[in-house]
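seq:
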Amino acid sequence: MTAPARPAPRALMAVALPRAVVSALAVGGAVAAAPSSVRVPLALGASAAAILLCVAVTAAVHAVRGERTTRRLLEAARAEADGLARDRARLTERAREDQERLRTEAEHERARLLAE
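struct:
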């Protein structure tokens, strides 16, 4: 079994880029509407919060995708294990039948040799 593959950077960018654009527009609008005395601290704080939000959402999406991949791999492994268990049960039954058949044949052969 293999480990889940890492997502392509393009896939993560498809998640992060729209959030970054929306966050940048929100921060820009808030800074533009704020009084000039609080624009710089607001811009710095809101920018940091927007970056953290984008990172958190991207990490969450990555985790969900990884979890889905891991679940698919787990289901495949379970199906394979179930198939192997069925094969083992079938082989065990066949071996038991062969053993019983050989035991019966040996008893018949022993009885035939004793009768001679």
